Amino acid sequence: MRIPRPPGAPGAPPPVPADGGGSPLRRVIGPKLLLLFVVGDILGTGIYATTGKVAGKIGGALWLPFVIGFLVAILSAASYAELVGKYPRAAGAALYTHKAFKIPFLTFITAFMVMCSGLASASAAARAFGGDYMAEFVDLPPTLVAVVFVLALAVLNLRGVSESVRTNVVLTVVELSGLLLVIGIGVFAVLAGDGQPARLGEFDTGGSGYAALTGVLGATALGFFAFVGFEDSVNMAEETRDPARTFPRAIFLGVAVTGTVYILVALVSSLLVDHHTLQGSSGPLLEVVRVGWSGFPPRLFALIALFAVTNSALINLMMASRLCYGMANERILPRAMARVLPRRRTPVVGIVFTTVLTVALASTGEIAGLGDTAAFLLLCVFALVNVAVLVLRRDHVTHHHFRAPTALPVLGAVTALTLASPLADRPADVYVRAGVLLVIGVALWVVNRIALGGALRAGRNGVDVPREDGGRP
Questions:
Q1: Across 329-345, average pLDDT
Q2: pLDDT tens-digit map of 53-71
Q3: Which of 112, 88, 90 lies closest to 327 in space, CA to CA?
Q4: Are 389 and 83 in contact (CB under 8 A)?
C-alpha cells in the first residue's frame, strides 16, 4: 500500500484535481486489472486460516457468518465507492476522516488503526504459516516458526520488494485456485453421496435466545476478517484510468466474487467436515481436501495455502511500514521513524518498529484472537468512514461520481459498530490487545507533539532548527 504525502506537504506531488486528472503517476490500471487487484487484496489469510475458528463459534451453520459478513462488507464498500469517486486520491480512510471532521488526532488514530489492523492480520498469517499447513512439511513449534517467518519477511521488506499490480494478478490466481479447488472437491464429493446436509442447520452457540444472537454476531465478527482488504484498493486511485467510474464497479464486483467464493467454501467445509474437527485445525481447508479427495496430495494444497498466507502477511507488513513512514514524514509520528536505508531506500525504522509489534503479537496471540483484533480495528474504521460519507454530502464536487443510497452508509455504520461492540461476544483479550496498540500510538503522538513544541520554542529563541528536507531555515 503506497502512502504518498498529502498535496501541499514538503516534497509532495502536485495536487490531484477532483476529476482524477493531472496525477504525476501513470494511469495504467483499467477495469479488469483493478477488479483482479481488489479480489487479490481480499483473498488470503482470513478464509485459509479462520474458517475453523468461525465454525467453532457457530457450529455446522458455518455459511451464515459469511453471508452476514458479505452484506456488512457491501454496505461499507458502498461508502468507499462514493468517497473514492468523489476524492480520487490515495490515503483512504485517513483522508476521508480528515476531510469530514478536520480533527488531526482523529485522523492520526484512524491511520494508526489501519496500520495496526495490518500488523494483527500479518501476525495471524504468521501463526497460520506455522500451523497445520507447515506441519505437512516439517514439525516445528508454531510460535518459533511464526517469529522466524515475520523476521524473514522483514528482511525482504528491508531489501525492497518490487511489486506491481500485474504481479498481484499472478498471486491472486494462485490464491483463488486453492479456494476453487476446495469448492470443486466439495461439489464432487457431495454429488458422489458424501457429506451431511443436516449439518448446515446446526447451531452450536452455547445457548439460545440472547446467547445464540451474541454467538452468531461473534462468529460474524471473526468471519468478517476474511473480507478485509478491499479498503486498501482505494490507494490505487491515482493510477487508475477514470477512477470515479471504474472504482465503484470494481469494488462491488470484487466483494461479490470473493463473498460468493467464501460462502461456497463454507458450505462444502461444513458438509464434509464436522465443525469440531475444523475448529481444532489451524489449516481447516486442508481437512476438507483430505476428506473430499483422499488421493489428492495434501502437500500441494498446503503449499498453495502457505503461499496465500505469505502473500497476505508481506502485503500487510509493507503497508504498515510505509504508513508509519508516511505519518513520520508528515510529522504525525516522530521524525526519526521516517529514516531510510541509504542504499536500499526502504523505511528502516518503520520496518523495525512494525516488525517488533508483529513479533510481539504473533508470540502472544492465536489465529482467532489476532484475526478478531484485525477485524475489530477495521470495523471501527469502517464505522468512521460510513459516518464520514454522510458528513461529506455537504461538500459538493463538480464531476460526476457514484452516490450511495443514504440508507447504505447508515446501515453500514450501525452494523460495523454492532460487530465491534461487546454484543459480538469476542474475548476480552481482543479489546486488551487493540487497546495496548492504541496506547502505543497515543504515546508516540504525545512524544511527537512534545518534540514539535520544543522545536518551535527553539526556533523562536533563535536556535537553528532543521527543516524537513534536512536544511536550515
A1: 82
A2: 999 999 999 999 999 999 9
A3: 112
A4: yes
* Lowest mean pLDDT, pick from 87-91, 140-144, 315-319: 87-91
pLDDT at 27 over 50: yes
Q: Which residues contact 364 (CB under 8 A, 6 or more apart)?
A: none
For residue 157, give every residue at least 6 positions away whose Cβ sits within 8 Å of its Cβ, in sequence order, or none.
Answer: 314, 317, 318, 321, 346, 351, 355
- Rounded Cα gap, residues 47 and 153, in angstroms: 21
The phi, psi pair for 372, rounded to 5°, reads -65, -35
Grid coordinates given for 104? 488531526
Give the Cα separation of 246 and 223 in Å (integer). 28
Mean pLDDT score, 32-41: 81
- More confident call, 112 vs 471: 112
- The whole-angstrom separation of Cα 49 and Cα 142 is 14
C-alpha span between 31 and 240 (Å, rounded) = 8
Q: Which of 236, 228, 443, 232 is nearest to 353 (CA)?
A: 443
Q: What are phi and psi of 240, to 5 degrees?
A: -110, 135
**Could you tell me the three cell numbers for 51?**
474458517
Hey, what amino acid is at 363?
S
For residue 86, give the 3-state DSSP assignment: helix
97: left (phi over 0), alpha (psi -120 to 50) or beta: alpha
